[in-house]
Amino acid sequence: MPKGDLGIDLGTASFIVYQRGKGIVIFEPSVVAVAVKTGEIVAIGEEAKKMIGKTPEYYKAIKPMKDGVIADYKTIEAVIKEFIKRTVKGSFLFKPELVIGIPTKATSVERRAVFEAALNAGARRVHVVSEPLAAAIGAGIDVTKSEGSMVVDIGGGTTDIAVISLGGVVVGDSIKIAGDAMDEAIVRYVRKKYGLVIGEPTAEQVKIKIGKVHPDMETYEMEIKGRDAVTGLPRTDKITSEDVMETLQPLVGTILARIKAVLEKTPPELAADIINNGIILTGGGALLRGLDKLMAEELGVKVVVAEDPLTCVARGTGILLDDENLLKVVAVSYTR
Ligand SMILES: Nc1ncnc2c1ncn2[C@@H]1O[C@H](COP(=O)(O)OP(=O)(O)OP(=O)(O)O)[C@@H](O)[C@H]1O
């Protein structure tokens, strides 16, 4: 494939684009600002995110990805078009080949819609690959082996659990409990315990900066700014890592229960491989302090956090741009 071809991770939290021969060239929040009257896209990513809550009446900020799936195909088409424009500068006739990660549970109709959106956006050929497979490839796993590997990808909208062998997902599950649900839980907790109304971006900062899910991890404190739930006036308060741990416990508990259920459905031979190789954690949620330790204790299996877990899917699609044989095994390809 020529340089300029793209690997794309359309995440609930971030859009990440890998350009062949260059590496990651776009890493933006998956937010789009649209003109209310015309429906025209006015900003994508960081610029659009800044407009949330501050947009004048004639702009609205939308998140075209919801719970890990594409909620708005027309916008995604425009987003892909914009990515092609930004990366394939100057060469108007060049139509890139795209590798796009899609959720495991995407139906054939949704897969087809991704393909249509990408072709309409100006792609020459489109390959779609299941996200946990792309994440595993990005994490350096040889997915074509008969040996089983387990990948748990904790993103913004979804947690994907997949047992992979011979280039496919043998057993898997996808649940709508991931980073966003954690942020929402922190918002509710702070309101209940401290009588303080905070926004989800503040909750996310708390989770990232001082969050933990294992008691052995160090405890920190953080000042949070919000609005008093009773008086409505702005005020600050303090939250600790222990608070976050208490808040996230039920969510992490559910994720662990679903991983256990997948392990129980895994054929014994592959389960033995997983015990030997451990579970690979990818996605932003993998960075939650103490999650690997908690998982290892609760599941009795070694847990490894992939290097740079946030970019595993995008780097996986990038590796596929360079490996046509692997692409044939793991992806579904379309040309008009
Ligand atoms: N250090 C951290 N600790 C805990 N969570 C983190 C950390 N860094 C990022 N996150 C969370 O990871 C999530 C984003 O992860 P990622 O980029 O893998 O998701 P995504 O691919 O966009 O979403 P999805 O896979 O659901 O479509 C966000 O919820 C973010 O808050």
Automatic annotation (TrEMBL):
Keywords: ATP-binding, Cell shape, Cytoplasm, Nucleotide-binding. It is found in: Cytoplasm. Forms membrane-associated dynamic filaments that are essential for cell shape determination. Acts by regulating cell wall synthesis and cell elongation, and thus cell shape. A feedback loop between cell geometry and MreB localization may maintain elongated cell shape by targeting cell wall growth to regions of negative cell wall curvature. It comes from the Bacteria. The gene is mreB. This is Cell shape-determining protein MreB. The lineage of its organism: Bacteria, Thermotogati, Thermotogota, Thermotogae, Thermotogales. Pfam families: MreB_Mbl. InterPro entries: ATPase_NBD, MreB, MreB_MamK-like. ATP binds at G156, G157, T158, E204, Q205, V206, K207, G284, G285, A286, L287. SUPFAM superfamilies: Actin-like ATPase domain. Forms polymers. One of its GO terms (cellular component) is cytoplasm. GO terms for molecular function: ATP binding. Belongs to the FtsA/MreB family. GO terms for biological process: cell morphogenesis; regulation of cell shape. Its main location: cytoplasm.
